[in-house]
């Protein structure tokens, strides 16, 4: 998901969404739970809901029930951890691992023009809603459109031209008669 607080070269990894235990650990919501980026301590920026930034060092670990827990350097008790709830976690994009040629990080796609195969501009990619199949929110004139991020729909991503080409016909279910 895009961050309204990420600076140039920063990406959102997720947020602090709870407190765990008595020694200052926090529960984390991470956009990519499978990432091992935070398994070793990393420099991050924590941004409160009002946009105030704070540098920190964060390491994650697995918790019971599939939870992801975080240890923030200098946070030693439950009250300090509670004060961080709702903070977004930003990291330098250069720390992200390389990806395959046909894969993209969300932050690379946000703001790109979305056009149909005929060249008609549909709008800009405004948000990615994560799920079993990510839904791309395209905002242009009128109501937003939501497109599934499927190979059948997304035909081409051109980061240089800052354009995504989609096939809207792939969304049409054939009429069975």
Query: Can you tell me the overall shape?
Result: elongated
Output the number of helix runs: 2
Question: What sequence of helices (H) and strands (E) makes up the elements?
Answer: EEEEEHEHEEEEEE
Helical/strand content category? mainly beta
Major sheet: arrangement of strands: 1-2-5-4-3-6
Low-confidence stretches: none
CATH topology of the largest domain: Elongation Factor Tu (Ef-tu), domain 3
Helical amount among residues, as a percent range?
Answer: under 10%
What's the CATH superfamily of the largest domain, by name? RimM
Radius of gyration: 19 Å
Number of strands: 12
Features:
2 helices, SH3 type barrels, Elongation Factor Tu (Ef-tu), domain 3, 2 domains, 6-stranded antiparallel β-barrel, mainly beta, 6-stranded mixed sheet, elongated, 177 residues
Structure description:
The protein has 177 residues and is mainly β. The protein has helices spanning 78-82, 106-109; strands spanning 10-20, 25-30, 42-47, 53-62, 68-72, 88-92, 113-116, 121-129, 135-139, 145-148, 154-158, 163-166. It folds into 2 domains: 10-95, RimM (Elongation Factor Tu (Ef-tu), domain 3); 106-171, SH3 type barrels (Roll), CATH 2.30.30. The protein has a 6-stranded antiparallel β-barrel. Strands 10-9-8-7-12-11 form a 6-stranded mixed beta sheet, with no helix packed on it. A hairpin with a 5-residue loop joins strand 3 (42-47) and strand 4 (53-62). The protein is elongated.
């Amino acid at each position: 998901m895009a961050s309204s607080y990420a600076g140039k070269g920063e990406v959102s990894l997720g947020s602090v969404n709870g407190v765990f235990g008595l020694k200052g650990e926090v529960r984390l919501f991470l956009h990519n739970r499978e990432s091992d980026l935070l398994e070793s301590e990393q420099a991050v920026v924590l941004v409160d809901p009002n946009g105030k930034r704070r540098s920190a060092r964060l390491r994650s670990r697995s918790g019971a029930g599939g939870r992801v827990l975080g240890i923030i350097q200098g946070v030693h008790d439950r009250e300090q951890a509670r004060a961080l709830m709702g903070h977004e976690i930003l990291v330098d994009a250069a720390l992200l691992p390389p990806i395959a040629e046909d894969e993209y990080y969300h932050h690379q796609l946000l703001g790109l023009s979305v056009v149909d195969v005929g060249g008609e501009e549909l709008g800009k990619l405004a948000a990615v809603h994560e799920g079993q199949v990510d839904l791309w929110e395209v905002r242009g004139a009128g109501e937003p459109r939501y497109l599934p991020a499927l190979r059948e729909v997304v035909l081409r991503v051109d980061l240089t031209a800052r354009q995504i080409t989609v096939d809207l016909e792939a969304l049409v279910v054939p009429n069975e008669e």
